[in-house]
Each structure stands twice: as structure tokens, then as C-alpha cells.
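Need C-alpha cells for this chain, all 301 residues.
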Amino acid sequence: MINLEVFGESAAMAAVAELLDEADGVSRVRLVDATRAEHSIVSAAARPSAVDRLLEEMRRLGVPDADITLTRVEVVGPSATERPEVSLVWEDVLGMAWLNARPIARYLAFMLVAGVIGGYGVIERNSILIVGAMAVSPDLLPITSISVGLVSRHARLAGWAFLTLALGLALSSVAAAVFTLAQDQLDLIPSGFNIDATILGSLTTVNDETIAVALAAGVAGMLALETRASSGVGVAISVTTIPAAAYLGVAVGLGEIGNVGGALAVLGTNVAMMVLGASATLIVQRTLRRRAVAMRGEPGP
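Here are the C-alpha cells for all 301 residues:
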């Protein structure tokens, strides 16, 4: 269930309340006076399938997006035993995409830490450190934002998200390279170390496994983002990016330039397939949503 709250001048809010009260899939409509003079607040409970259509109609009434708040609520009690409605709220997905497309300092810091941990994992041949690096990495967020931008034809969103992803992965590789170089200069690299013999030695060749895993990860990543489960699925998603970025950094730090091209190819292929998988998931969901709306005879979002 989605809680909808709208704030504005009383005359406009009266029209909004009337709109919501007459709309299918909306209940518990309330209109109350706000503290600010001649302003009111409208609140209602709406089914996810009705939200996009309602937002479009409120925009036609001149209500600014900044005055509309949407909150997803978990239903408990007797009504929770009814058949749940699982519907894509496009405005919610688009809003999250814009939020995750920005290269904020916290995101870059996480990517830097992931690169350091991943680099040590490659050198020490420690799979636990590799998994730890994947757990830290938040690269799922800009990857899904790229897909949302492509599907919605928002070139600026897709561009910002791609820049954010590229900066993050570059920072991970640079961090791994710097720490590897420092260890090499201080003679801290294990004797007889051979980068081709590490647990990530296969990350220089693109094969069918590379493509299939990345496609599946893209599908899982998009579904996780929509259900607010991205933190739990992030490790599985980063298996296609952070290990390759860390391997690339270690190769550069050790001067193994011959392995750089292959690692870049694997990383690029993984990102492209993840974006493709996430985009396909969105397209299928939107198509099914439009068909369901058409069958009910409602105006589509």
C-alpha cells in the first residue's frame, strides 16, 4: 500500500481531495487544515497500480512534485492475508534512480574501500576478502540507474549514472593499484606471487559464463532495487564488477600490462550485460503493467 500526502493552498487541495475520492484504488481520503493559513493537507491510501495515474492527474491540476509525498507501507492484520498487489510504481523507480545517479562522497568512499580490500584479496589469494569487497561496494545503484534512464529515455539520467559508475570503478582500480604498488616497493608481496595463478586469474577472458552471470545479476539487481532489498543482493551483483576492478588494479600496480586489456574487457562486458538485464526487466514489467491497466479499462500512466 502507498500512503499519499499532498500539501498546498486550500482551494487546490479541495480539488485534489475530490480527485482522490473518486479514483479507483484509493481509500481513506482526508482533507485537513494545515498550520499555514489558507493551506491544507490531503492524505489517502492508494494501491500501487493507481499511483502513477494519480500523479499525472495531480500534475494536470498544477500540483508541484515537491508538494507530493509517497510512502510505501507494509500492511498487517486481516487485510494482509488478502492477495497482495505487486505493481511497479514508475515514479518511485525514477526517483530512486535520480537519487542513486549522483557521485556523492559516501558512494566514492565505499568504492575506494572496496578496491583496497579487493586488491589485498587478489594478492593474498583470499576469497573472504574478495567477498568482503563485494559486500562493501554500492555499484548496484548506478548500474540500475543507467537502466532506468535508458528505458525512460532520460539521457541525462543515464549519463550521470554512467559517470558515477565509471568514477567508482576507476577509484576501486586505482586504490588497488596504489596499495599493490606500495606493497611491491616495500617487498611485502608474497614470494613467487603470480597474478595469473590467483583466484581471479580467469578474469582476463570473456566467455559464456561471464555473459550469463552478468545478465542474471542485472535482473536480480533491478528487482532488488524495486523491493528495497538492494543491500542484501549487492554482494551477488558486485561479483561481476569489483573482482574485475580489483584484479585490474593489481595488474597495473605490478606492471602486468598484458593482463590489463583482458580485465577491462571482462569488466566492460559485465557492466553492459548487467545494464541489459536490468533494462529488460523494467521493459517486461512496464509492458505487463500496461496490459493489466488496459484490461481494466483504466487510463495508463
